[in-house]
Amino acid sequence: MIIRIATKDDLSAIDEIYNQAIATRRATADTVPLSNEERLNWYWSHDPEKYPLFIAEESGKVLGYAYFTAYRGRRYALRYAAEISYFVHKDHLKRGIGSSLMEYALRIALDLNIRYLIAILIGNNDPSIALLKKYGFSQWGVLPGIVDFDGVEYDHLYYGRRL
After folding, report:
1. N or C: which end of the chain has fewer CB within 10 A?
2. Helix, strand, coil proportions of the chain in percent (round to 5)?
3. pTM metric for this prediction
């Protein structure tokens, strides 16, 4: 398995994985897939020099992906903080892909001038919570019950780690 910067050609695989995440109702608060235009705009927003989008690939197949996003955008005082997000194809769960993506992210973060990583997740996402704890993240905050999937409420959790 290799980890590399994503290209535009990877977008269909990324879409497939993200749409799987939407269906779980625990990996994202999105409830409908992104349009092609929205996905393309999202892709172009990930500058590989600052907030890269990277994939785990094996034999030409995208197994998962992760990326950094500016935390709170243009607020300069937060320039050293970034949000980390990651998703793994359902057929490749429990194979260490999430761990490989996280290890890669932690390895490159300081070179990107990121000192704090923040993961924002839904409270019923036990696999993601376990991954974050494995890599030294701790719960920094909770927004109780604000995630609502058709009347079923979950907390929105903030996990963080200083690098």
Report:
1. C
2. 35, 35, 30
3. 0.94
Give the per-residue pLDDT at 34: 85
Q: Taking Cα atoms as reference points, which of 100, 93, 125 lies closest to residue 28?
A: 125
CA–CA separation, 61 vs 110, rounded Å?
28
- Count CB neighbours of 106 within 10 A: 16
Single-letter amino acid, residue 5: I
Helix (H, G, I), strand (E, B) or coil at 37: helix
Q: Retrieve residue 143's tokens.
A: 């927004």
**Alpha helices (H) along the chain:** 11-24, 36-44, 97-109, 126-134
CA pair distance 5, 24, nearest whole angstrom:
26
Query: Per-residue pLDDT tens for 31-67?
Result: 998 888 888 999 999 998 999 999 999 999 999 999 9
Extract the tokens encoding 45.
């927003």
